[in-house]
Design brief:
By secondary structure, this protein is mostly helical. The protein has one domain (2-75). The protein contains three helices and no strands. It has helices at residues 2-23, 28-47, 50-75. It is elongated and about 45 Å long.
Length: 76
């Protein structure tokens, strides 16, 4: 499916940009990762791939925890 593949590539770019931003210690990287995971979840729903939906949910939870931990360390 062309739509699913196109969305998958957009998500891949989001993951890469997010990872780059996180290595620069910029919190915007979490937003890129979240958007990329949401896109992957949509692709999983379109293609009926429960494994992709599941890993997207797990990675979103990990990113959310990372963001919370980052905020806590900033606040002292």
């Amino acid at each position: 499916m062309i739509l699913g593949d196109s969305l998958g590539w957009i998500a891949n770019i989001g993951f890469i940009v997010g990872a780059i931003e996180l290595t620069k210690r910029k919190k915007i990287g979490f937003l890129y990762q979240l958007i990329a995971n949401l896109i992957c979840m949509v692709v999983g729903i379109i293609l009926k791939l429960t494994s992709l939906i599941a890993i997207s949910i797990v990675l979103m939870a990990i990113n959310f925890k990372g963001y919370i931990d980052w905020r806590k360390s900033e606040l002292g």
